[in-house]
Amino acid sequence: MLFKSLISFMLVLFLNPIFASASTLPPLKVGMELQYPPFEMSDKNGVPSGISVDLAKSLGKYLGRKVIIENIAWDGLIPSLKTGKIDIIISSMTITDKRKKVIDFSIPYAQSDLCILANPTSGVKSVKDLNQKGKVVAVKKGTTGHIYAVNHLKKAKVLVLDKESSAVLEVIQKRADAFIYDQLTIYRDWENHPKTTVALLQPITKKPGYWGIALRQNQPKLKAKINEFIKKAKSDGTFDKLAYRYLKDIKKTFVKLNIPFFF
User: Fold this and answer.
1) Separation of first and last alpha carbons in the chain
2) Mind listing the pLDDT tens digit for each residue in 63-85?
3) For a Cys-Cys bond, which of 16, 27, 40, 172 suits 36, CB 3.0-4.6 Å?
4) Are residues 101 and 13 located together in one domain of the fold?
5) Has this prediction a pTM greater than 0.85?
6) At 3, is the pLDDT very low, low, confident or very high (cuts 50, 70, 90)?
7) Which of 91, 27, 85, 26 is nearest to 53 (CA)?
8) CATH of the domain at 234
9) Sign of CA dihedral 59, 65, 68, 72
10) Residues near 131 by beta carbon (within 8 Å), at least 6 away in sequence
């Protein structure tokens, strides 16, 4: 009797597509650089945490796949995606035409614009003040700030660094007049160094920057599922909950300055 019950249970598992798909689908390997709190970071025990981590877990649940977070340096994310080391990237990555030549993106899930962290003695009040001979602009390698500086600040010296913290230090120590990066990072860097930096949070570009989930090209089914998830997360309050949990104070500042918020 027990044997027959066991056989019946196994047949149910085998024939039921819900159970079958959950047991056979491979894990979803999500690449991100855990150096961008509160979006991508690690807790005190080294466990991945933050908005992007929560978002990845929600996506995995929606797809019926276990999620594995791979902590990868920023300039290694796209190569890791192209070679199949990871399946997708959720790392506050801006959708750009250059990146779309080698990888694909979901629909946007957040908006983030470039702005400026300046040294108080630099005389920099806007991005126009940076495009001058003798000005030094710090950027993080491979970011949209790096791309913008190379294309639009041709009169200035562009100092390319591997880490955000290094760029901020250059501004603090007056070796760079400014650092170009996204608004959230600039705001937090100013909070940490209010006497030695100035945050100019107004966007420096007319065209907003949008973040997307990156995936390899020619994956229409996966892309469609990811897009479905993003639409659902926007409509069911998922993004609102993430913003309230991680970005409550910053949202107040953005509203006060009349700056578009991330979600």
Assistant:
1) 57
2) 999 999 999 999 999 999 999 99
3) 40
4) yes
5) no
6) very low
7) 91
8) 3.40.190.10
9) negative
10) 152, 153, 154, 155, 156
263 part of a folded domain? no
Does residue 262 fall inside a structural domain?
A: no
93 lies in the same domain as 185: no
Domain with 31 in it = 2-111+209-256
The total of structural domains in the chain comes to 2
Q: Are residues 118 and 186 in the same domain?
A: yes
List pLDDT tens digits, range 179-196.
Answer: 999 998 899 899 999 999
H helices of 115-163, in order, are 144-152
Question: Pick from 167, 183, 200: which residue ends a domain?
Answer: 200
Q: Give the SS3 label for residue 31.
A: strand
